[in-house]
Each structure stands twice: as structure tokens, then as C-alpha cells.
């Protein structure tokens, strides 16, 4: 994506889960704690999803028996099964291979596309993730693994702020790097097509860990690489 910070943008500087660091700006109402999702109540039940959709259609004043809607509940159930396929999976488990290389510089994959579902409205938020880390003692992983971590974190009911943290923490826990940076930019359909109705607006969240968080110079350099598009 060319214009990383183009268009109207709400920036949420994401603190790490232990709280905001002193040298980063606090953005009042937009700043949110990194809330962990609670364990699942049950396994996915497509029949239940379909029944719920049937009820929704009735609630909308529709007749679920009319021809165009007959297959809709089952179809929506299959769709949601696909959209939440990462539920219960640990994104860190996607980092299945590790290599040893003589590298102690930033590894950054930019513009990884993702689609997730806003857990407040059950509509999509779609965007790109930029994921980078600074290896410790040359410990690296395959570049595609970073995209897989993003995909697994996205494939569940989410809030962007939590997803950002989950990706960063997955890298920290599995690679033990010197630092991690994760920036997510996404358009939320719950803002585009309803409520305030601002299509094109982007929400930007970041999660910084280790040396990326503690060194202002490192942080500035990485952010300029990300926004260079
Ligand atoms: Zn929403």
C-alpha cells in the first residue's frame, strides 16, 4: 500500500501490555489497554450460527423461507467458520522454523494484507500489517511466517488494538528478539458504512517491544521505513 499515512487517520499508540512507556505520547480516549481475550466458551457450532442468522432474518422482517434466503443461514455459517478459522490457535505456533544467520539488523515485512471481524459489530475491518523484528544472536524465522502470524491473529473476532498486541507478543515469545514492531492500518466497516459513515478513514495501531520501544532513534528509523510505502 503506497500511502501509509494518507487520508483521515485515527492513530492509536498502543502501549505494551504492562502499560504505556514514559517517552511516548498518551492519546487520551483513544489509548486503550491491551485486553486479552478470555478463553473460549464452546467449540464452533455452525448449526447454531445458522439458527441465529435465521432469527436475524426474521428480526429484519424477512421471510427466511423465500427462495433467495433459503440457503443464506447455512452459507453465512460457512462464511463465519472460515473467517474465524484462527479461533483457539496461538499465532506464535505459526513460527515453526528458526534459522541461525549472522544478522542483527531489522527484518521488516511491510503491507501484509489481512481481513478480520470487529467483535463489536461483526463486520469486517480490512487493512495491512507491517511486522518487523531485530533478531537476537542471529535467530531468525522465515518471512512467510510473519504473514502467517498475522493471518492467524486476524481469523477470529477481534479488536484491532488487541490483534496488534497479539502479533507482537507472538514474535517476542517465540523468537526472543531484541525488539519487535507491529503497525496495523485498517478500514473498519463499522465506521465506513454505519454510525459516523466515514469511508476511507484508517485506524492505525502500533505495538512496540524491547529495543524498538526503548530507543527513540530505532523507533524513528523503523517508522520512517514503514511510512515510506
Ligand atoms: Zn466495530
Detailed description of the structure:
The chain is of the alpha/beta class and 229 residues long. It folds into two domains: 9-40 and 91-227, GTP cyclohydrolase I, C-terminal domain/NADPH-dependent 7-cyano-7-deazaguanine reductase, N-terminal domain (GTP Cyclohydrolase I, domain 2), CATH 3.30.1130.10; 46-83, GTP cyclohydrolase I, N-terminal domain (GTP Cyclohydrolase I, Chain A, domain 1), CATH 1.10.286. It has seven helices and eight strands, in the order E-H-H-E-E-E-E-H-E-H-E-H-E-H-H. The protein has helices at 46-59, 72-83, 143-154, 160-175, 189-192, 211-214, 216-227, and strands at 9-14, 98-100, 107-118, 124-134, 139-141, 157-158, 179-188, 202-210. A six-stranded mixed β-sheet has the order 1-8-7-4-3-6. A hairpin with a 5-residue loop joins strand 3 (107-118) and strand 4 (124-134). Helix 1 crosses helix 2 (72-83). The longest helix is centred in the last third of the chain and has 16 residues, at 160-175. It is elongated. The structure holds zinc ion. Zinc ion (ZN) binds next to loops.
Features:
alpha/beta; six-stranded mixed beta sheet; elongated; 32% helix; 7 helices; GTP Cyclohydrolase I, Chain A, domain 1; binds zinc ion; 229 residues
Amino acid at each position: 500500500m503506497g500511502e501509509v499515512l494518507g487520508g483521515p487517520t485515527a492513530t492509536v499508540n498502543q502501549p505494551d501490555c504492562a502499560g504505556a512507556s514514559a517517552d511516548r505520547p498518551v492519546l487520551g480516549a483513544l489509548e486503550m489497554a491491551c485486553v486479552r481475550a478470555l478463553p473460549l466458551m464452546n467449540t464452533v457450532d455452525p448449526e447454531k450460527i445458522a439458527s441465529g442468522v435465521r432469527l436475524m432474518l426474521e428480526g429484519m422482517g424477512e421471510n427466511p423461507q423465500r427462495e433467495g434466503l433459503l440457503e443464506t443461514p447455512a452459507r453465512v455459517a460457512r462464511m463465519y467458520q472460515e473467517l474465524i478459522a484462527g479461533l483457539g490457535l496461538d499465532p506464535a505456533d505459526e513460527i515453526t522454523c528458526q534459522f541461525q544467520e549472522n544478522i542483527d539488523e531489522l527484518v521488516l515485512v511491510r503491507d501484509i494484507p489481512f481481513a478480520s471481524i470487529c467483535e463489536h459489530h461483526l463486520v469486517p475491518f480490512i487493512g495491512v500489517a507491517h511486522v518487523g523484528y531485530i533478531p537476537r544472536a542471529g535467530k531468525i524465522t522465515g518471512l512467510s511466517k510473519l504473514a502467517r502470524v498475522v493471518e492467524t491473529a486476524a481469523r477470529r473476532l477481534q479488536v484491532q488494538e488487541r490483534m496488534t498486541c497479539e502479533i507482537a507478543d507472538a514474535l517476542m515469545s517465540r523468537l526472543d528478539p531484541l525488539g519487535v514492531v507491529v503497525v496495523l492500518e485498517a478500514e473498519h466497516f463499522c465506521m465506513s458504512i454505519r454510525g459516523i459513515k466515514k469511508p476511507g478513514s484508517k485506524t492505525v495501531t502500533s505495538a512496540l517491544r524491547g529495543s524498538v520501544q526503548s530507543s527513540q532513534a530505532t523507533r524513528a528509523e523503523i517508522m520512517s521505513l514503514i511510512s515510506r510505502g
